[in-house]
Amino acid sequence: MHRSFAKAFSDQRFKTTEIKDMKLRRSRRKQFLEHWLTSFGKLQDEIVIPLGAGDGFDEFHFTKEAGFIWWIVQVFDLLRSDSRVTVDVQAVDAYGIMIDVPNPAQVASDDDDFLPFQRAIVEPPPPVTAINGKVNDHGSYIKRNISRDPREQETWSVNYAELLEILGLTISERLQDGVKLTLESMDHENMPVAKGTGDYSGYTIKGFPFLDARRGGFGGKGDKAFGSKDDKKHVNPTEFTYKIESVLQPQDLLTYIWMLCLEELTELLDVEFDQCTNFDECGNVLKRDRARACKHCNKIVVQHKEAGFVWWSVIQRKSTYAHAKKTNADYVDYVECSKSLTKVHEVRKHRRIWCAPSCESKQRSKTSK
Q1: In sequence order, what DSSP letters do the residues of 14-35 get, joined into one string?
Q2: Rounded to an integer, what distance in angstroms lies between the CA atom of residue 66 and that of residue 60?
Q3: Which of 70, 130, 162, 201 is the 20 to 30 A CA-CA neighbour of 2?
Q4: What residues does 110 pair with on adjacent strands?
Q5: 10 Å Cβ neighbour count for 290?
């Protein structure tokens, strides 16, 4: 959802600016906003779904928040695509990895409480003289005081260590006082069938607090989570066990979106995102594990993308951990597959290619006409 929110920003900010007709531009922006609100709902309680020509909807607030998420998502993509950013980057080396990210002035100004912008416009720290007399002006790894006009300076060069700090602080600040710790499956609705009647077909999982019910193909629980009628026949809540699990509950949709940003940050080098089959209409993506099993040798392989090419390689230990730590060569890539005729690792296609059952049904209804 956070990536769909970022796409909504790019659609209305970048695509509509290419339209010269102001009336048509306003109409297109309204379409983008209504599509988001129809699909996901309001961000916060004080923001209502537009009625008529958008009365009562705070478009400025929506665009600002979407812009912040857009900036975060752009940085995630840049970090994931940078071959220098790996799991074994040492602390000292992280300061030497300079990454060009979008100028935060594209989405924020002086009046906004957006840490990346505030960090980018401040003066760099003063030079420091070391014990040996050498002066460190920080110029090689700290780039500050950037232009407030993104047309003059489109990117901001920031080192990897500081960029991670900025991401962490920005996301954590947005989540303050917006998330509470609670328990999952606390549903106290009455069971629809009297206990002991033997009519199990009338039971639903809603009548069982802490029920350990399996999830369907799209992650949901309950009768609607399972795609076919045969699956629904096997949903017998009386056969399930209990599972008491804590969960983090956001106070509104905007907080949930920032929670997803936090989740992606913690999984930054472990996941990829593929577009839904109906992406042009829904704008949703599917999260995938970067490490998967090769369908030939069954070894865990990791995807690489460079210059339009995609390949998979096995990541294995080069030697013992102690020796690898001393030699600074912890891992080594094995590109060839020993059991493939082409010597190339391959993975099976993902079974799930739609973001939601509703998205799949809409697309199939169009193609059937």
Answers
A1: IIGGG---HHHHHHHHHHHHHH
A2: 10
A3: 162
A4: none
A5: 15
**What's the rounded Cα separation, in Å, for the pair 248 and 184?**
9
| Residues 220 and 153: beta-carbon distance below 8 Å | no
| Per-residue pLDDT at 264 | 96
Q: Closest Cα to residue 34, out of 20, 51, 46, 16?
A: 51
Domain ranges of the chain: 2-180+252-269, 185-244, 274-369
Nearest to 272 by CA among 10, 99, 76: 76
Provide the whole-model pTM: 0.79
Give the pair of three-digit tokens for residue 217: 């193909």
Mean pLDDT by 10 residues, the chain (369 residues): 89 70 75 79 64 59 92 95 85 91 94 92 75 67 84 92 96 94 75 56 71 73 55 63 90 95 94 88 86 88 71 57 44 70 88 86 75
Per DSSP, 305 falls in state: E
The helix (H) or strand (E) run that includes residue 66 is helix 59-81
Structure tokens at 95: 């300061």
* Those residues with Cβ within 8 angstroms of residue 70's Cβ, 6 or more apart along the chain or in another chain: 5, 6, 9, 10, 107
Distance in Å from the first CA to the final CA of the chain? 30
User: Which tokens belong to 229?
Assistant: 């009628």
pLDDT for 321: 39
**Which is nearest to 312 in space by CA: 288, 336, 342?**
336
Nearest Cα to Cα of residue 356 among 280, 288, 267, 277: 277
